[in-house]
Design goal:
Elements lengths: L6 H6 L4 H12 L7 E5 L5 H8 L3 E6 L2 H14 L4 E4 L16 E6 L12 H12 E12 L1 H4 L5 E7 L3 E10 L4 E12 L2 E12 L3 H10 L3 E6 L12 E7 L1
């Protein structure tokens, strides 16, 4: 399972900063603060905590117990309340905090949906989201694009470098299978010793047609596409934010 051993490394390397920044931008473009927000694949809680700090009632869902443990600790340190649920976003459980039609906004950030690689995965998530959103509610998510994946040549990307932690990601794109791979290797210092860890993450490039079809399966319509800075995307944009409505 990914994001198990890597969870504390992800947190220490500051990778949650993307979710924090995008959550603030999303809120800035909402007419009012959403009353109830569902954050899927919430990770260490970066976006969920932004929404909670803005006054929303927030539910965060993630499959990684290790990531949720950090999220709970972050919420406690900030004096914020979020309901955390450990679950696979492709098959959300029956839970009293996940009532149909009860959410104004659902998010799934930092290319989390790219990690769904089977044909029906994206549609399954969208069906669940469509049931949970109120009419007029929004589903906002970002994806790495095929154009972006095509730049993932064999090279090492330094994610974080400090006297006590080094994180490197070797990027590779398989054109035939339309799959992208990030091989995370980290070295963490404890006293005089360095400890090595490794995880490989696989992502799928979802086409625009597949995205629209999945949204339609959840009775949602694509309303807008933006960059993470909320500007109109170019045709070769490496990452796109999608805004859909129930």
């Amino acid at each position: 399972m990914i994001y198990l051993d890597y969870a504390p490394i992800y947190h220490a390397a500051g990778q949650a900063a993307f979710g924090t920044a995008l959550a603030h931008i999303i809120l800035a473009h909402q007419p009012t603060t959403p009353r109830r927000v569902l954050d899927l694949a919430c990770g260490t809680g970066a976006a969920a905590l932004v929404f909670a700090a803005a006054g929303a009632t927030v539910v965060g869902v993630d499959a990684s117990a290790a990531m949720l443990a950090i999220a709970r600790d972050q919420a406690y340190q900030r004096g914020l309340t979020v309901e955390w649920i450990e679950a696979d976003i492709r098959a959300l459980p029956d839970d009293p905090h996940l009532q149909p039609g009860s959410f104004d906004l659902c998010t799934c950030l930092f290319d989390s949906l790219n990690h769904l690689t089977e044909d029906g995965d994206l549609a399954n998530v969208c069906r669940s989201v469509g049931k949970l959103l109120r009419p007029g509610g929004q589903f906002i998510f970002d994806l790495n694009t095929l154009a972006g994946f095509k730049t993932w040549h064999e090279y090492d990307q330094v994610i974080f470098d400090s006297p006590h932690l080094l994180v490197v990601n070797r990027l590779h794109f398989d054109h035939d299978r339309q799959r992208a791979y990030g091989r995370f290797v980290w070295f963490r210092r404890e006293g005089e010793r360095w400890w090595r860890g490794e995880e490989t993450h696989c992502e799928r490039a979802w086409s625009d047609d597949e995205i629209v079809a999945a949204l339609n399966a959840g009775e949602m319509q694509l309303k807008a596409c933006r960059t993470p800075q909320w500007t109109p995307p170019t045709v070769d944009e490496p990452r796109v934010v999608y805004v859909a409505e129930r």
